[in-house]
Specification:
There is one protein chain. This protein is α+β, with helices and mostly antiparallel strands. The chain has one domain: Nuclear Transport Factor 2, Chain: A (Roll), CATH 3.10.450. Helices cover 52% and strands 19% of the residues. It has a five-stranded antiparallel sheet with strand order 1-2-3-4-5. α2 packs antiparallel against α3 and α3 crosses α5.
């Protein structure tokens, strides 16, 4: 029910294209383009040099560091956020994080570099922060570059990723639409979303256990 939606779609495309970016100058952390290049470098190291368990832990850390998890959670739930109790809201955010992190880890475990690379092409101001434009140059002559925009929200003197837009399609908006569909197919009950997320999170955990040596 949550097939390759939201940020997981981005990861399927993007993690396979992360290659080492140029060295980051000291003190450049406040630059939006540098923020994305830093993420690129860290994903590359994580993919190439860690065990499956380390990938899972490392990706959880990167997700918390680089993405606006609470903001994304509230956005994808839309009007249903206000219907849930505070404890249910916190449960959803935990399930959301767990599902995304496990799915990312699975994709990373399948990673096989084909010579592709992610190239930042520019950035521009946005009312809440900035938008960084980039493109995925696919290796082995596999078609045209994929355009990826990263919507960044200003946060504590730095940035957090609040959306990933691939070829004009917002992953956050896509996820919001699919979660709304889950509720609508279950009589408009937002708690059906929690049930689906619990199942998806449990399935991801079981897959991770099964894949462990």
């Amino acid at each position: 029910m949550m097939r390759r939606t939201l940020l997981t779609t981005a990861v399927v495309l993007i993690t396979g294209a992360f290659a080492p970016a140029p060295a980051i100058p000291a003190g450049a952390g406040g630059d939006p383009a540098t923020f994305i290049n830093n993420l690129s470098n860290q994903v590359h190291v994580l993919v190439r040099n860690t065990s499956p368990e380390q990938k899972l832990a490392g990706f959880r850390e990167l997700f918390r560091e680089y993405f606006d998890v609470p903001g994304l959670g509230r956005f994808v739930l839309g009007r249903f956020w206000r219907v849930l109790t505070p404890s249910e809201q916190q449960e959803f955010l935990g399930l959301f994080e767990n599902y995304i992190v496990h799915t990312y880890s699975e994709r990373l475990s399948e990673y096989d570099s084909d010579g592709g690379a992610l190239r930042v092409t520019g950035s521009r101001p946005d009312p809440d922060g900035a938008i960084v434009s980039s493109e995925i140059i696919r290796g082995s002559g596999r078609g045209q570059p994929i355009k990826v925009d990263w919507r960044l929200t200003a946060c504590n003197g730095g940035y957090k990723i609040s959306d990933v837009i691939i070829d004009g399609i917002s992953m956050a908006v896509t996820g919001r639409s699919e979660l709304a569909g889950v509720a609508e197919r279950n009589g408009g009950q937002p708690r059906a979303i929690l049930a689906v997320m619990r199942q998806e999170s449990a399935n991801a955990t079981l897959r991770q256990i099964a894949a462990s040596p």
